Structure formats: C-alpha cells, structure tokens
Amino acid sequence: MNSAHRGDTPRIGPGTYYENVVIQWHSLTLVGASAGETTVDGKFKGPVFVLGPQNGGATPTTTLSVTLADMTITHGKGVTGGGIAQNVSAFEVRDSIIESNIATQSGGGMEVEAFSVKPSDAVTTAIKNCVIANNQGPQGAGILIEPEIDVQIS
Predict the structure, then answer these.
(1) Which of 78, 84, 126, 146 has a CA between 20 and 30 Å from the CA of residue 56?
(2) Which of 57, 14, 7 minimizes the C-alpha distance to 35?
C-alpha cells in the first residue's frame, strides 16, 4: 500500500497475506479476488486494518474514504477494532468475511470511531453483504459503533 496514490484501487489476488495494513493519508479502495480466495491475516500482531488516525492522532487535511471489498479479514488483535479500526469520514466494507479477531476493549471484528471528525462533518459507514462471526471483545464483539456515526447495514 505504500506505493498507492489517493483514489487508487489496488487489486489483491488470491492467497493469504500476513499483513497489518495502515491507511492514514490516502483515500483508497482495496479489492480482493473474493472472500473465499483472498485472506488478509494479522497474525494477532495488531489490527488487520487501521484506517485513519487513531486515538486522537493527527487529523488528515482532507476527507478520507476507504472501501474494503471481496476479502476475508482475520486474526487481528487490538485494544479497539481487532479486525478493522476505522476512523475515516466515509467507509464501506462489502462482500467480505470478518472473523476470528480480538479486541481487549471494544469492537472485536470492527470498531467505527469518530476521533478525527469535526462536529460539522458527516461520517458514513456501509456494511454490505458481509459475514461478521467468531470475533471477541468485552464490548461489541462483532462491531462497536460510536453514536456519532451513520451506519447502513445490508
């Protein structure tokens, strides 16, 4: 992802990729071959995907939009958001499996946060055609969504 530019759509081929991916400064769409063919495995070394600044970190100068599609996201571990720690203005995850992730505080599979959002900003999240299963966390084992967030689940 280090060579990707704002607005790119990197394609991830079939296989298992042992990665902990951080996307903080560029809007991207990441597309796997399918949830059954492309797996991103965090090996319990951190969240599988960290999207945007976390825990009050630096705020991006532009609105960030990230889409994850057609992949399995597994074996992530974090304080919040074991599979996906999401803190961007627009986020969509579709046609994916989010399973077997762990959070020690909240959002085992996914935490949808709003640290970098100004009061006037609208934060939208869409979860479409996903399986979210076998994740662990004391609060929101599958998904924890902060109240400021507009979420569409289908």
Answers:
(1) 126
(2) 14
